[in-house]
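yo

u said u wanted the structure for the complex thing, so here. seqs first:
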Amino acid sequence: MKLDKLKQYMDENKTIQVTDELKQKTLEAVNNEMLLQQAMSTMKKEQNKKKLWFKWAGLAASLLLVIGMGVSVLFLNLFSNEKGKQDQNYMPSDGSDGSDGNATDNDEMNGIGDVNEGGPRYSTPLEEENSGYMNDGNVMDSNNHQVTENPFIKTSDEKVSTFSIDVDTASYVLFRRTVSQLSLEKLQQYKNYIRTEEAINYFRYNYEEPAGHDPMAVTTWVGDCAWNNKAKLAMITLAGKKLEASAQAGSNIVFLIDISGSMGSEDKLPLLKRSLAIAVENLNPKDKVSIITYASGVNRVLSGVSGNQKNTILSALNQLESGGSTAGASGLNVAYSVAEDYMIANGNNRIILATDGDFNVGPSSVEEMKKLVTNQREKGIFLTVLGFGVNFSWGDKRLEVLADNGNGGYYIIDNADEANKILNEQFTGTLYTIAKDVKLQVEFNENAVESYRLIGYENRTLANEDFENDSVDAGDLGAGQTVTAVYELILKKNAKEELFSVKVRYKEPNSQQSQLYEHGAKISTDLTDDFYFVSAVVETCLVINNSEYKGSATIQHAYTLAERYGKQDKYKIEFANILALWIQS
Amino acid sequence: MEYRGDQRDLSALIDQYGNCVLHTAYHYLKEKQLAEDVFQNVFLAAYLKMDTFHGDSSIKTWLIRITINQCKDVLKSAYQKQVNVGLEEVACISESAEQIALENIENERLYQSVMALKPDYREVILLRYYHQLAPGEIAQVLQLSNGTIRTRLSRATATLRKILT
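structre next:
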C-alpha cells in the first residue's frame, strides 16, 4: 500500500485549484463584511456620541438657565433698590422691563445654539476615523454609485432623448435606512449617493389613470425650476392600469427563499416570514403557491398549493429556519422547474426570490443565471427580487441585474411598513406586470427648447435607435405603478410652440412585439401637488448628490415643498420629516 | 501574527493556504460549489478571528480546523447528507477504468478506498497523507488526544490494507 503516493495522485487527478476569481470573490466578501462591521460600529459610536451630546446640551442649558436666573435676580434687586434712578450700567440695552425674561430665553437659546453648532462637529473625528473606510469604500463606489450625471444637451446637437423606465425603489429605501446613521455632509461625500429616479418613483402619485383598454396613460407638465431660475422643469409621467388580482387568470408563485446562515438576524428571515405572510393574505383560490428554500442544499417545502390554503402556506413559512451556506444558483434552477410544473396559461407566472443578497456565485455564474432568467422570461416566467437586511453597501448589483432581466422589480424590505407597502398596498403592482420593456422617447422642439437635461435615469438611457429595437430590454411597469421622468429645460427666448412630444413603446406581458403609444395631449401648466412634491424630491437628491447642477437647491426649500404638498400620505410625510431633522441639526 | 485590517495579508494568506483549504473542503463535500462557499467562509472567519489565533498551532492546522468545522456544519443538513450519498455513488460508477491511465489504476483504487472509509478514518488518513500533518497536528485540528489520533490512524490503515489486499 503506497499511501505516500496518495497526495501526488490526488493533486494530479482529484482536486480543484483556487482560481483568481475565487480569490477575488473571497477578498470582496471579506471587504464587504469589514465595511459592514465598520459601518455598524460607526453607527454605535454616533449613537453614543449623540447620547453624550444630548447630556452635555442638557447640562449646558441648565447651567445657563441658572446663570440667567442669577443675573435676573441680581438685576431685579438692584433695580428695586435704586427705584426711580436710571442706572445705565444695569439697564438692558433695549430698555424694556420685560426683556429680563427674554434675555434669559435668548441666553438659553444661544447656549443650545452653540451646542447645536457643535453638533455636526462630532462627525469630524468620525470622518477621520473613517477616512480609510471612505477611501477604501470600494463597495460604495464599485457598485451603483459611480454614476455620471446627465449633462445639458443642446437640441441643435440632439433633439431626441430616449430612456427605459425604472420602477425600482431600492435606492430610496437604502437612503432612508442609512439617513439616521449618516449626516447630510457625509452622504454628500459619496458621489451620487441616491438615484433620483428611484427616489421619485418610490412615492405614489395621483396621475391620470388610463382610459379604456390602454395599459397606461401619459401626463406632462411644465413649471418653474426651483433651483435654476433660468430653467423650466418638465415632468413626464406614466400611470399603469390598475388590476384586480381576483379578476386575473391566477398567479403561479414560487417563493424561492434564502435560509442560509446569514439570514438569521431579525431583519432578515423573521421579517421575510412576516412579509411573505402579508403577500399570502392577498392570494386567491386560483393562485398556486410553491415554496423552495436554499441554503447548503435546495429543498421543496411546498409545491403548487392553492392560494386559499393559507394555513398550510403560513405554517410552512413559519417553520423555516436559517443555517448553512448559500447555493443560490441551484435554488433558482429548481424554482424554475417547479414554476414550469404549475404554469398557468396567460396567468402571472413568477418566482419571488427573497434573500439578503448573497448569492455566492462568481461572475461567470451570474452570466449563466442571467441567461437562465432571460430564457425563462421568454417562456413567461418572471422574476421578482425582495432584498432583506441588505447592507448599505448597496445590496447586490447582481440581484438587481437578475430582476431586470427577469421582468420583475428589485425591492428592498427593511421593516414591516415597507413589507406592507410592497406586498399589500402595492400587491398587484409588485406581482403583475402590465407592460414590459417600456421605453420613453422625448422629442424636443428645436424652435422652443435651447437645451435639456434628463435628471436621473443615468444608467437607463438608451440609444435613440434602440427605441424601435424590440430586442433591447427595458424596464417593466406593474399594475397601478407610476413612473416619473424630470427634465430641466432651457427655453429659447419667446418660445411659443409646443416644447416637446412623448412616445412610449412597450410590449404586452406575453408578447414579443412592441406597440407604440403616442401622447397627444397638450403639456399642462396647471400644476398639481404631485408636481411640487416631485420637485422637492429632485431638489433633495441634487443636494444629497452634491450635483454640479444643484444651483440654488436647498434642503430647507425642498422641505417647504415636501411638507406642503406631501400631506395625507405617510411615506411623503416621512420624507418631509427626514428633511426636517436635517434642518434642525 | 497580525493579518487583521490588511487585505494584502489576506491575499498572501489565500495564496499560501488557499489550496489547502479548498482541497480539504472539496474532500469533505465533494461538490465544487459547496467547497468554494466554504472556502470563502473560512477566510472570512479567519480574517475576523485572527486576533484569537494564539500561535499554539500552525496557521495551516488552524485553517484546516476552521474548514473542517464549517464542512461539518454543511454536512449536518439532512438534504446534504442525501445529496452526498448520491454523489458518492455516482462518483464510484462514473470513474471508468478506461479513463485512467494504467499506471494509475493502483492509485485510483487506493484513492477510492480512502474515500470509501468511514468519515472518522477518512479524515485522519487525508490529514496525515494528503495534508501531511504530524499526528500531533491532527490532534490539534480535530481537538482530540494524540492517543486517539494514533489509534484512529492505525485502525484506518489496517482497514485500508484489508480492502486493498
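The helical segments of chain B are 7-29, 32-48, 59-76, 78-94, 105-116, 119-130, 135-142, 146-164. Confidence is low (pLDDT under 50) at residues 1-5, 78-100 of chain B.
cya
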